[in-house]
Amino acid sequence: MKILMDKVTSDILEELEKTQRDFWNIPRETGIMLNMFIKMMNAQNALEIGTSNGYSGLWLAKALKETGGQLTTIEFYEKRQSVAIENFKTCGVFDIITPIQGSACDILERFEDSKKFDFVFIDANKREYVKYLELIKPHLTQKAFIAADNITSHAEKVQTFIDAIDSDNDFQYEILNLPGGLLTAYKNT
Ligand SMILES: C[S@@+](CC[C@H](N)C(=O)[O-])C[C@H]1O[C@@H](n2cnc3c(N)ncnc32)[C@H](O)[C@@H]1O
């Protein structure tokens, strides 16, 4: 494994990995993949559902800095969001991030019709994944990409989400064999 990352962010990521279990962060492998996906597709408007302390957000935002993109990230708990904001500031990415605090479904329901995302990362309440998909779909650009974590580790809770993607002819998808299982879906319309 080799990553291209500045020293400050590299150190913060390593520090956050010490408390990975407390904050339910994605594994490093998944962070690297998300970072590369964003760069490869030149994503411009990314949405993250489930900020926690900002660990995954740093992987996303560092890639978005390179593409000239923006990140909107949603977290229910104010305390976790504050920690995330500090991490984003320390790593020099806060200027491209819009943190939103609250319940994801409520927030997604209130998005204006004109709000569009070409990259979405889902990592919040597992049973709500299917609802997030339903609420996000009208806000996806053509050729948008969705990644969702914990597909194999929380298989039963996310089954309705997998079924919804599977039965939707707008998407092709694959579940990547990363720790926890990462579903990657491409909207082919
Ligand atoms: C698995 S953690 C996210 C980890 C983060 N993506 C990372 O890898 O650094 C899930 C987060 O989603 C938040 N969450 C859970 N349900 C939520 C909801 N309905 N709305 C907004 N945030 C929610 C939790 O508070 C928690 O911080």
Description:
By secondary structure, the chain is of the alpha/beta class. It has one domain (24-187): 3-Layer(aba) Sandwich (Rossmann fold). The chain has eight helices and seven strands, in the order H-H-H-E-H-E-H-E-H-E-H-E-H-E-E. The protein has helices at residues 7-17, 20-23, 28-41, 55-67, 78-90, 104-110, 129-136, 155-166, and strands at residues 45-49, 70-75, 97-101, 117-122, 140-148, 171-176, 182-187. Helix 6 (104-110) runs parallel beside helix 7 (129-136). The chain starts with 6 loop residues before the first helix and ends with a strand. The model has no long low-confidence stretch (mean pLDDT 97). The chain binds S-adenosylmethionine (SAM).
CATH topology: Rossmann fold
The total strand number stands at 7
Spatial order of the strands forming the largest sheet: 3-2-1-4-5-7-6
Order of helices and strands: HHHEHEHEHEHEHEE
Cα separation of the termini: 34 Å
Annotation field: number of helices:
8
Coarse morphology? globular
Structural class call reads: alpha/beta
Q: In what range is the share of β-strand residues?
A: 15-25%
Rg calc: 15 Å
Q: CATH top level? A: Alpha Beta
Main pleated-sheet profile: 7 strands, mixed
Q: What's the architecture, going by CATH?
A: 3-Layer(aba) Sandwich
CATH superfamily: Vaccinia Virus protein VP39
Listed once per kind, the bound small molecules are: S-adenosylmethionine
